[in-house]
């Protein structure tokens, strides 16, 4: 009897939690989330400790130690575990710097996409009518412009920098958030508690802030984690094309682009930054996929 009461109490308490907390609790049961977070924590800890443990500089050139292979190969050294490039610069130290710039672009871009898209989508879903029509036609027009074409057009006529890259990527990505936010907002507007709030005299903006936004934002916020990985890939592509972070500042794209000419004789110069990026992206995708599956399970009423 005591066990039955305890289980019923726990289930009732679980159902009373906000959707965001329920998604986090459900996702935490996944081994995929724990492994992804563990790998990311190890990488970030290594990025902080590596400069303290080894006197390696991402910018200092050392011609006497150029083209050193990674650990495990003949001629490798412990101080440069991923080897050195054609100018003797430490590839691991440069990869850490590249990761920092990649996140510096990806995280603000996703936040900007999230804010712009959710604001437009919620307003369109709540107001309806001509407001919704105009907002969705603008969204469709923006979706019709390929990201690479927009980036080449804007970044090709200016000197690329972090704020400009963030702006270009955000302008290309916000429509997806707008469409999802509008769909969820329309669904919420048909619910009984919204009608009850209107009967009690709540204004439209109060309903949006207290009812619609809390229902819309968590479901989209967890999906945004996957977009961080997507934007990191786009930043690397732009860097590879010469439209991203400019040398000598290291980024994954320009390191791979500069090292591709040495691929035959010194394969690790372009490969190691790519492998480093692959590990980071895989970890982020593992975290994002776990959160997305938990969100789908919660909102489909499986729990």
Q: In total, how many beta strands?
A: 0
Indicate the multimeric state. single chain
CATH fold naming: MetI-like fold
CATH superfamily: MetI-like
Reading off the top of the CATH hierarchy, the class is best stated as Mainly Alpha
Distance between the first and last residues' Cα: 23 Å
Overview of the structural elements:
The protein has 303 residues and is an all-alpha fold. It has a single domain, classed as Orthogonal Bundle (MetI-like fold). Helices cover 74% and strands 0% of the residues. It has eleven helices and no strands.
Strand-helix topology:
Layout: H1 2-16, H2 19-28, H3 31-53, H4 91-127, H5 129-143, H6 147-156, H7 162-189, H8 192-199, H9 204-240, H10 252-259, H11 268-299
Keywords:
MetI-like fold, single chain, 303 residues, mainly alpha
